[in-house]
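Annotated sample (chain length 401).
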Amino acid sequence: MQRVKDTIKQIGDVIDSLRKEKVPRLMLSLLAVVTLFGTFMYVFEKSAPDALIKSVGDGIWWGFVTISTTGYGDKYPITWAGRVVAILTMLTGMFLTIVISGTIASILVERKLKEGRGLQKINSKDHIIICGWNESVDNLLDGFRIRAEKSRQKTDIVLVSELETEAMSEIQFTYATKFLGIEFIRGNFTHEQVLEKANVKGAKSVVLLADESGENTRNNADERVVLAAYTISTLNPTAHISVEIQNSQNEQYLKRTNVDSIIVTGEFNSFMLINSALNPGVPQALKEIMSFNMGKEITTRQIPSNLVGKKFEDLFRFIREKEGAILIGIISESKKLSIDDFLQGDPSSIDEFIKRKFAESEKDFFADTGGQLSVMVNPGWDYVIKDDDRALMIGEARSKA
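Output written by the structure step:
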């Protein structure tokens, strides 16, 4: 269904481009020429004894057949005047046909060139945007490819960076598959207009990387990530945002954004090395559950409604027995608060007055509430499952996590 919507959207964009280039006006001119010369043809031919064009409709039909070079031969002029009209029709029609076809071809070629240079606006929705480029992107795309092929669900990814067009085309050729679509926008992802080209408002998730594309270096990567996070939070407050930063001290600047996950470069290196020395086998186990190639991975899933209100112990047994996976924790996402959460349950004149004043202010005083993820690893057997909880487990990735 989404693919059909995208196709309709693309057709609409082409039609809009044709309208801007005045192609409809050219088409009307062609129609007017056919109608005019077809009428003249009827006027000159109708009195001829053996005339084949005996009505205005015959003349217009002849005009369309002539201009389109179809040449059925069922209608043609037999008078000298009619033949002169035929010559004028052919010359005028040929000129208009060349202009119209050339205009349409130039529009389609321009769209294709823009798409190839990463300048064409993206029409996809519920896609994943990856902003920036560094050496980890190859593994990132390879992981998305493996996950998409396992789930057999189409995943659309939009890359936003300042890489050269040839490099981006090579990436598409290397990683794009039946289940992984890759498009790209070339530009600075800290600019709002570039993010809008990537259709950030319709994106499901956004990943911000320490960017090294173009002339960018890691020296100012954190600044650009923070700036982009604020912009994206404004354009799409519902998008899940994950960021990579170089310095853990810069986490404080992301507190008032919608960032869900913050990864500090090299954050886990010391942990892996220490455990390698003191607890052999731990790094290998973590590598297995963090790799898409090993068969078992850390994943999440929705909790069946009949288990809401039950204990963590009940959910653990259900997932182990029904799916052969191991429940290791719970992920909760807080709901956005509203004025109703602070008022009494019974309506009163005071409550109505407060609601009205909040509405008149036209400000969202609860914009910063809700949407925050809370991860609880092994919360305890007696933890009660809530509506907004998701299961965090080790097991096979599902088609719909």
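Annotation: The mean pLDDT is 80.
Annotation: Residues 80-116 form the longest helix (37 residues).
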